[in-house]
Amino acid sequence: MTPSRITLGRRALIAGAAMAAAPARAQWAPPRQVRLVVPFTPGGGADTTARLLAPTFGSVLGQPAVVENRPGGGGTIGAQEAARAAPDGTTLLVDAANQAVAPFIFRNLAFDYATAFTPISRVTVYPLILVVKADSRLASLEALLARARAEPGRLSYSSSGNAISNHIATALLASRAKVELTHAPYRGGGPALQAVLAGDVDFGFATVASAAALVQQGQLRALAVSTAARVATLPDVPTVAELGFPGYDQAEWNGVYGPAGLPAEAVARIHAACRAALADAGVQQRLATLGAIGLGTDPAHFAAFLKAERAAMEVLVRDARITAD
After folding, report:
1. Is 15 exposed, middle or buried (0-12, 13-18, 19+ CB in 10 A)?
2. What is the pLDDT of residues 270-317, one digit of tens each?
3. Average pLDDT of span 94-113
4. What is the number of H-type helices and E-type strands within the chain?
5. Is the predicted pLDDT of residue 267 greater than 50, yes or no?
6. How far is it, in rounded angstroms, from Cα 196 to Cα 215?
7. Please, are residues 275 and 284 in contact by the beta-carbon 8 Å criterion?
8. Taking the model in full, what pTM does it have?
9. Strands 117-126 and 293-294
10. Distance in angstroms (rounded) separating the CA atoms of residues 125 and 258
11. Is-contact 105 323, C-beta < 8 A?
12. How far is CA 285 from CA 54, 288, 291, in A?
């Protein structure tokens, strides 16, 4: 994990801007309607990303694209559905950061995340912000960690569930800071954030879209941003990396995958559709509203990112004893 991950993605997006403006060289087209399988319920980051992509996918690929939610099993049910599909470009997976975590917390899966998919593009990143209740005595990340060191296990934090991005972000921070914290998993981001507001937990990481307004209204205090760069919505909030943890860069991210064996010409055309969607003014405005970053990294960069991320997550899951339950 290095602070260059999102930066590299942005450079890749700029370097390949021509691909979004011009048709892919290979005149490949899917033979019928395209399914964008989302392995989670509607409303989350992966679902939002898929629905932002779908209209442009239809126009660029010459076939309508529909979003199909297949939740369950911590994202593995929908992923398995996409892994078993024919590699003809009519079934794609829009998955979240659990792609890098799931292989190490779910046993006896009927497919291998590392070999079952063709990476096409890491499309979006949703930065997280570490928040406390506005009247909390934990006025800074330094103060929070000092308290954690003084009273191991006393501080509690909420998450959207075991092994979800905000759980992983906190586990990584605890590992880097060498502190012991108590995890309180909730069923979704809304209840997790409400727990911070109610004082049921001491802090939590939350998406910019869900927490920024509450920070601006004075109900929450933002202590740090999880990504390598600060977020435009809260420009005065420093990053975790700036606060003594260089290289810390952890967030919710979403990517597009095809089944293993997807032809190169299909990969190129679908990647061009991703880039075209991110170039759309309406999509850019929606991402800005959500505090999200559009990347559109090319397949090679995305594959390299996945390999590095899985290696890092394997170590974190083992050392932090992260489980699916």
Report:
1. exposed
2. 999 999 999 999 999 999 999 999 999 999 999 999 999 999 999 999
3. 93
4. 12, 11
5. yes
6. 12
7. no
8. 0.86
9. antiparallel
10. 19
11. yes
12. 16, 5, 10
